[in-house]
Amino acid sequence: MNEFEIRIQKDCGLNLYASEIQKIQVNLGLKCNQSCRHCHLACGPEREEMMDWETMAAVLKIVHNVQPEMVDITGGAPEIHPLIRKFVEELSDDGYNVQVRTNLTALLEPGMEDMPDFFKDHKVHIVASMPCYLEENVNSQRGDGVYGKSIQILQKLNSLGYGMNPELSLYLVYNPGGPSLPPDQSQLEGDYKRELSNRFGIHFTGLYTMTNMPIGRFWEGLKREKKDDEYMQLLLGGFNCQTVGELMCRHQVCVAWDGTLYDCDFNIALGLPVSEELPKNIKDFTLEPLSNRRIVTGRHCFGCTAGFGSSCGGALASDNL
User: Fold this and answer.
1) What DSSP character marks residue 252?
2) Could you list the residue range(s) of the whole structural domain that residue 137 is in?
3) 20 to 30 A Cα–Cα from 189, which one of 71, 94, 175, 312?
4) How far apart are alpha carbons 32 and 114 in whole angstroms?
């Protein structure tokens, strides 16, 4: 057993297994119009890894079999994938809930002019990276000019009903700018709503807070600054048993651009596919063993269980102790 597994056994009295597959998360590739310094997958314009249609078709087949509550599409910048429209149309036409994770600025790239309208027409739920409501903090994480472009797209989405029409949900995602844990999600959501409404008239459905994982560009930056040990001790010291039952890996399976199956997007970054006794590719997907699988963990998992907890759907616990 690794350090994380020992900790949840000792402190929480359990082992980590999946309980059911409520969500299928699909990573369409690592190509992105940005190179954010906190990106755990080290995505950027130079990356060429992208899912082909054969793999997408295999995902569609499994979606029909599993009947998940949500198909969660991520990347990279998934909206710049040349086949995303076809993929979303297939899912939407068959009545599945589809969610796309966007960095917002990708929707200003050439050829993306009508993508917000496309999302609206297919009732796609949007989860948008917005690491702060202050310009300086956003630009320092994601690059000069990103804040202004993000505001522009949020206003466009609002004009289409996103964030106001219950069928067009718009969630924003906060992550700390440095080696600290996110604050209380509900309190920060109130700050976001007040500031973005007062300054720009922007409305959104809710806020997700996410902890920066000790992997990828963020981790490399901490190591250069010699703050990696300090951050790891923060995560270890903040371990919270209340988060374990709702960990996202227990209720989803992730499909990488090459069809490999993972417990979560963070394990994709580390090259840790589902446990060795299970099928490794979407083309060999078998529902029952994957629904009850042992979760593959590592030291990075302390990032999801520290403080209020962290997942693709935000905080996991109401108490950070």
Assistant:
1) E
2) 3-305
3) 71
4) 18
Reply yes or no on whether the pLDDT at 177 is more than 90: no
In the block, tokens 């994601």 appear at: 142
Q: Is residue 180 pLDDT above 80, yes or no?
A: yes
What does the pLDDT read at residue 35?
A: 86
Q: With 80 as the cut, is the pLDDT of residue 321 above it?
A: no
Mean pLDDT, to the nearest integer, of 117-124? 98
First to last CA, the chain: 25
CA distance 56 to 71: 12
**252 lies in a domain?**
yes
Q: How far apart are CA 23 and CA 253, in angstroms?
A: 7
| Residue pair 108/1 in contact by the 8 Å Cβ criterion | no
Closest by CA position to 290, among listed 303, 281, 300: 281
- Structural domain count of the chain: 1
Q: What CA–CA distance (Å, rounded) separates 315 from 277?
A: 31
- Would 321 be classed as within a structural domain? no
For residue 311, is it within any domain? no
Q: Which two tokens stand for residue 300?
A: 């990075």
